[in-house]
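Narrative of accomplishments. A recurring question from our advisory board has been how the design workflow behaves on a single, concrete structure rather than in aggregate. To address it, we present the structure tokens for one chain from the evaluation set, followed by the sequence designed for it. No filtering or post-editing was applied between the two.
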């Protein structure tokens, strides 16, 4: 019984590590301006620190990379980005669009 559980745990760890590696490469290979992604990440750090929440609660790296790649120009376009739901669109939309406009 213990070896069965150990095998299941080992498989779960392998899958988790594979997902972490895949996420790392997806973020690095995402379209867009790497400098813009870093500006978005800096903005996210400021917002998350002010709110007292972890940065990923504001937006995941994947979402920031997608925003940088798409460069939305309106709330409607920003709302089409995966990871930007109605609540985050309302809470952060204007700030993000302002940052994107200043980055052009």
């Amino acid at each position: 019984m213990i070896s069965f559980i150990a095998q299941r745990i080992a498989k779960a760890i392998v899958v988790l590590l594979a997902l972490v590696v895949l996420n790392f490469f997806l973020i690095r290979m995402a379209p867009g301006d790497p400098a813009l992604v870093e500006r978005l990440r800096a903005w996210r750090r400021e917002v998350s620190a002010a709110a007292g929440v972890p940065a990923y609660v504001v937006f995941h790296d994947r979402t920031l990379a997608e925003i940088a790649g798409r460069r939305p120009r309106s709330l409607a376009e920003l709302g089409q980005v995966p990871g930007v739901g109605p609540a985050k669109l309302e809470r952060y939309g204007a700030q993000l669009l302002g940052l994107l406009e200043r980055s052009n």
